């Protein structure tokens, strides 16, 4: 069963689309039908399938999560204990827990069965740049 580790370089918090890379993997693997499982190997980022037509959607989602879970140095977050790695670390773990670290996408006729406006995103929750590893696995 074909597998690949995709590396996504981030520049800080936000959504980074990798639909094209995932679709290319499926085409290269030659799978006509099956399931693409996508898994991110980190605890402070997550995966989303989201609209890829209007960049305002990505901006609004990012702002929503920043408001929902502010940095640990925000007065409302004084209860946080895990602060060794900076004020964005524990909030990043919380955001990852609220979202998902793996998604499954059906493959039909050799293509990802995403909707017209759907894209596949790494959702970075840390402020610093990172190199994130995403495992792509194409199964029957």
TrEMBL record:
One Pfam match: YjbQ
SUPFAM superfamilies: YjbQ-like
Family that this chain belongs to: Belongs to the UPF0047 family.
PANTHER family: UNCHARACTERIZED PROTEIN YJBQ-RELATED, UPF0047 PROTEIN C4A8.02C
Protein name per its UniProtKB record: Secondary thiamine-phosphate synthase enzyme YjbQ
Species: Shinella lacus
């Amino acid at each position: 069963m074909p597998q690949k580790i995709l590396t996504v370089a981030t520049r800080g918090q936000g959504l980074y689309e990798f639909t094209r890379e995932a679709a290319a993997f499926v085409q290269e693997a030659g799978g006509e039908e099956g399931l693409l499982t996508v898994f991110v190997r980190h605890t402070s980022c997550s995966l989303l399938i989201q609209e890829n037509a209007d960049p305002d959607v990505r901006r609004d989602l990012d702002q929503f999560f920043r408001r929902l879970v502010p940095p640990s140095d925000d007065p409302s977050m004084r209860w946080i204990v895990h602060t060794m790695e900076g004020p964005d670390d524990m909030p990043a773990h919380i955001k990852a827990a609220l979202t998902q670290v793996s998604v499954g996408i059906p493959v039909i006729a050799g293509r990802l069965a995403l909707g017209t406006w759907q894209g596949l995103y790494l959702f970075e929750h840390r402020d610093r740049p990172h190199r994130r590893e995403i495992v792509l696995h194409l199964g029957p």
